Amino acid sequence: MRQQLADTVTALALCCGALLLVTARSWRAALRVLLDLLVAAGLLRLTAGQGWSALAAAAAVILLRQLLWAGLAGPSPTTGTVARVRRSVSGRSESDHSGRMTP
User: Fold this and answer.
1) With 70 as the cut, is the pLDDT of residue 24 above it?
2) Does 98 map to a domain?
3) Does residue 21 belong to any structural domain of this protein?
4) Is 99 a member of any domain?
5) For bias kind Basic and acidic residues, which ranges apply (predicted)?
6) Measured between alpha carbons, how far is 6 from 24 in angstroms, rounded to an integer?
7) What is the span of the domain harbouring residue 52?
8) Distance (Å, whole) CA 70 – CA 72
9) Rounded to 10 degrees, what is the CA torsion of 44, 49, 55, 61?
10) Could you read off the pLDDT of 50-73 as tens digits, one per residue?
11) pTM score, two decimals?
C-alpha cells in the first residue's frame, strides 16, 4: 500500500512540476516543487521498509535538492560589497568618524 502511494506521489511530482513549468513559466519554481515532492515520495518509500536502497535513494534526492539550490542561489554579497554600497550612499568612509565628507 505504501509503495503504491510513493509511486503515486512520484507521478504527481512529475505532473505538478510540468504543469507549473507550463503555466507559471518559472523553471525554478517547477524544479523546487518537483524536488520537494520527490523527497516526500522517497520518505514514503522509507516507511514501506524497502531497506538500504530506499534510504540511499531518499538521501540522493535530498543531496541533489540541496546542491541544486546552493548552486542556483548564486554568491551571496560579501561584507566588502555591503560596505562599499554604504559608503557610496552615505558619502563617508567608514574609517572617517570626524564627520568630514570624503570624495
Assistant:
1) yes
2) no
3) yes
4) no
5) 93-103
6) 26
7) 2-90
8) 6
9) -20
10) 778 878 888 888 898 888 888 877
11) 0.61
Do 72 and 28 touch, CB atoms closer than 8 A? yes
State the Cα–Cα distance between residues 22 and 40, nearest whole angstrom. Answer: 23
Q: Per the structure block, which three cell numbers stand in for 29?
A: 519554481
Alpha helices in 1-103 (DSSP H): 2-24, 27-47, 52-73, 79-90
| pLDDT per position as a tens digit, 32-42 | 899 889 889 88
DSSP letter at 76 equals P
Q: Between these two residues, 55 and 49, which has the higher pLDDT value?
A: 55
Using CB atoms within 10 A of its CB, is residue 45 exposed (0-12), middle (13-18) or buried (19+)? buried
Into how many domains does the chain fold?
Answer: 1
In a domain, 101, yes or no: no
pLDDT digits (tens, 9 = 90+) for 62-102: 898 888 888 877 665 555 555 555 555 555 555 555 555 55
The pLDDT of residue 19: 94
Whether the Cβ atoms of residue 42 and residue 2 lie closer than 8 Å to each other = no
